[in-house]
Design goal:
The chain is of the alpha/beta class. The protein has helices at residues 22-30, 38-44, 63-75, 82-85, 89-98, 118-138, 154-167, 190-198, 222-240, 243-246, 261-274, 286-291, 303-312, 330-337, 343-357, and strands at 3-7, 13-17, 53-59, 101-107, 143-148, 172-176, 202-206, 251-254, 294-296, 318-319. The strands form two sheets. The protein has an eight-stranded parallel beta sheet with strand order 3-4-5-6-7-8-9-10. The protein has a two-stranded antiparallel ribbon with strand order 1-2.
Length: 363
């Protein structure tokens, strides 16, 4: 897979993907966690389930965004991307009704809104956020949204935070785990996190494939492993930078059961304990910070992922997510509903943990 790194006017490197096979590999990697083939899962999906779940990991593809990004998307696709390019809110509502999702909090997935150009990225963020707000208005009670930010552009991000939260009434902010070869704990991003902390915002952080790690192992699609590793990198960067401790009022959500963090948590904790110079950055300890984060279970409702996550965090920190339309919701519900949790724990993950983050949905 070939990549070109582009230096923009702000000095931030972006990674342009040149391989036409990347899109196919992306879809294959995202589906790799399914216990059953997608077709089988679709066949098993019920026609309608009483709405109860709150889906915090649900993606949208606004038409104007697709129009602007179509060339890049087609450039990296050697399969028909119609299931994503032709997404509509009606398709989301139909999928939600099939799987008992009362409300979905929408967000942007890869490639996101940061394209390496300040004005273009600001415009893409505004297009996505206004579309999401209109979708909320047009479907009362069914949707919320995490507003997209062009994070490497601090000025643009601060302006979009104010517009999205104050004018559009977004439910939170959506970010990526990395931007080129920079992670959220980068000191340059501190002003945005300080403002989000002041606002006590909910921040949903979706995985990305960083520029450094797009073709490490031949034949392995990057999202298969790198999405999970990059979630761990993002969390670790926020620990090392002291962002979690400095911004205790941000309510973070990380995807896919925290990636590899549940397995590596003890190792990372031991490293910090051996290096007291980090005490000022995590004065309450690594495990304190990790256990107060929230984690969704999108494409992670299997024994190895759930058991690792539940050994790290209390049940109160786990949220339902689907990753639709990249995956059918049944990929997650089939594993979660059969996992054997008590009805109280299932209700907590399906709904009540989310209503603490989004009180407007508690009715």
């Amino acid at each position: 897979m070939r990549h070109r790194r582009v230096e923009n006017d702000s000095g931030v490197r972006s990674t342009r993907i040149d391989s036409r096979r990347y899109f196919l590999k992306l879809l294959a990697g995202l589906g790799a966690g399914a216990v059953l083939p997608v077709d089988a899962l679709m066949a098993q999906a019920p026609g309608s389930v009483a709405p109860n779940r709150i889906d915090v990991h649900h993606h949208i593809w606004p038409p104007r965004y697709v129009d602007r990004m179509r060339e890049q998307m087609l450039e990296i696709a050697d399969v028909d991307p119609a299931p994503l390019l032709t997404w509509t809110p009606a398709r989301s509502v139909e999928e939600m009704d099939r799987h008992g999702v009362a409300t979905a909090i929408s967000s942007m997935s890869v490639p996101g809104v940061w394209v390496g150009d300040l004005l273009a990225s600001r415009s893409l963020a505004r297009i996505c956020n206004e579309f999401a707000a209109e979708m909320v208005s047009n479907h009362p009670g069914r949707f919320g949204f995490f507003a997209a930010l062009p994070l490497p552009d601090q000025e643009g991000s601060l302006a979009e935070i104010a517009y999205a939260l104050d004018e559009l009434q977004a439910d939170g902010i959506g970010l990526m785990t990395s931007y080129g070869d920079r992670w959220p704990g980068d000191p340059a991003f501190a002003p945005v996190f300080d403002e989000l902390n002041r606002r006590r915002a909910v921040v949903f952080i979706h995985p990305n494939v960083p520029g450094c790690c797009t073709n490490l192992v031949t034949g392995i699609p990057p999202p298969l492993t790198e999405f999970l590793f990059d979630t761990t990198r993002a969390i670790t960067s926020l620990l090392v930078s002291g962002t979690f401790a400095r911004c205790p009022d941000i309510r973070f959500i990380f995807c896919h059961a925290g990636g590899t963090m549940p397995v590596l948590a003890s190792r990372i904790n031991a490293f910090f304990r051996r290096h007291p110079e980090f005490d000022v950055r995590v004065p309450n300890g690594v495990l304190h910070e990790l256990t107060r984060l929230h984690y969704d279970i999108a494409n992670s409702a299997n024994p190895s992922s759930l058991s690792a996550l539940m050994n790290l965090v209390p049940m109160s920190q786990i949220l339902f997510g689907s990753d639709f339309p990249f995956l059918p919701t049944a990929v997650t519900t089939s594993g979660f509903d059969g996992y054997g949790l008590s009805s109280d724990d299932m209700q907590a993950i399906n709904r009540t943990n989310a209503t603490r983050l989004f009180p407007r949905l508690s009715g």
